Amino acid sequence: MASRMAHKVMQARKGTPEGSGLLVIDNPNEMITVAGNNRKPRRGESLQDIGIMKEAALVIKNGIISEVGPRKEVLASVDTDNAIIIDAAGKTVMPGFVDPHTHLVFAGSRENELRWKIEGASYIDIASKGGGILSTVNATREASSDELLALASNRLDIMMRHGTTSIEVKSGYGLNVEAEMMILEVARALSEEHKADVSTTFLGAHAIPPEFKDHPEGYVDQVIDRMIPRVADEELADFCDVFCEEGFFDVEQSRAILEEGKTYGLVPKLHADELSDVGGANLAAEVGAISADHLEKSSDGGIGQMAEANVVGVLLPGTSFSTNIGYADARRMIDLGLPVALATDFNPNCWTKSMQFMISLACYKMRMFPAEAVVASTINAAHATGRARDVGSLETGKQGDIIILDIENHEQIPYRFASNHVDMVIKRGEIVHTRV
Ligand SMILES: [Zn+2]
């Protein structure tokens, strides 16, 4: 399918550096490196250590960061006649954002539900009016893979213009074998053709489809017996995720699905404790998930177990903003030693493509410090998608994934909220977006 779709995507192949392959970013007001001990996700005090350098420069050679340090030394070591030099004076330079939780591939749009939300309708009320996840499932099942790819690619272009250079994409709006496979094939095609790095997650257990309304166990069996083997066989996903929640998949069902995924090499993730504390955080720790996401209602005990098991807590303040479910208490989680990350949760119920806005919400609504929110949306988000060796910080040997922001310092990201501060996006050493 990828080759059939290739012409649809207006992006060049990955890993093709521009010009001589030498790019220098010179003299930003703040060079935020997030450098340091990044072998494990950051927690506690180290969440505030973002490695700010002043009077610094950075060199990318053939897509990889080859030097970062004091500008005099760096410039003296580079053949500047053969380099593209970007003057970043007065600006902020930092790693491209990693968005570790999105539902990018779906059809349709649900702005009609906003009025119902304003009138006080609950998640369940909206579903009973024909809205919610299942209305998106219907629209997605009716779409072709070409249509889905075009929609997803366009969304990812916009995310990139907001500074996101790596992303995780889940299935979950198909809810039958064919449609779930199609969504993951689209996500894989996107991964091959788009300049952003795309990780894929199988979320067949997102909701019980209408066909199985009266016997949900039958659907769990289908996920386990038919979907997981095909996902693994066709190498369509890196991770396996479950929406563990009352009325969706309980802890036993979630455990069974995630354990089966593990036997096929799919690393567990979890939608945990969004609407109620069902023990999702505890389950994430038990199965050794790479991340557990949401956590709005998790208990201290569950958070403590996650911290001990080194599970990244991916917090989704956009969902709290758009659904009035209350915000996760990030301050408490950080105090309990949890490594936290941030993500947009882009989906029809939370239509935002801006990690910058997530940083604002994290600071204003979840009591995170600006530096913590920077770490949570770069290196810790990279850990949540298994990509921390390649992206998430500005250190030699890592991909040249860098954004230049038209602000003086990182504290202005949350402070000057609901604006796009991105001036330039560089992916693997190539300038992929410049603000005109
Ligand atoms: Zn989600």
Task: Provide an overview of this structure.
- With 436 residues, this protein is an alpha/beta fold.
- It has 2 domains: 2-95 and 393-434, Urease, subunit C, domain 1 (Roll), CATH 2.30.40.10; 98-384, Metal-dependent hydrolases (TIM Barrel, Alpha-Beta Barrel), CATH 3.20.20.140.
- 36% of the residues lie in helices and 20% in strands.
- The protein is built from 17 helices and 18 strands.
- The strands form 3 sheets. An 8-stranded parallel beta sheet has the order 8-9-10-11-12-13-14-15. It has a 6-stranded mixed beta sheet with strand order 3-2-7-16-17-18, with no helix packed on it.
- Strand 12, helix 10 (280-287) and strand 13 (291-294) form a beta-alpha-beta unit.
- It is globular and about 70 Å long.
- 55% of the residues are buried.
- Mean pLDDT is 94; it is low at 1-19.
- It binds zinc ion.
Q: Please, how many domains?
A: 2
- The CATH topology of the largest domain turns out to be TIM Barrel
Radius of gyration: 21 Å
The assigned structural class equals alpha/beta
Output the strand order for the largest sheet: 8-9-10-11-12-13-14-15
Total beta-strand segments: 18
Q: Superfamily at the CATH H level of the largest domain?
A: Metal-dependent hydrolases
- The number of helical runs is 17
* Helical residues, percent: 25-40%
- Specify the CATH architecture of the largest domain: Alpha-Beta Barrel
Taken from the alpha-carbon principal axes, the silhouette is: globular
List the ions, cofactors and other small molecules found in this model.
zinc ion
**Average pLDDT figure:** 94
Q: Runs with pLDDT <50, length 5+?
A: 1-19
Q: Return the CATH class of the largest domain.
A: Alpha Beta
Strand content of the residues, in percent? 15-25%
| Alpha carbon gap, first and last residue | 35 Å
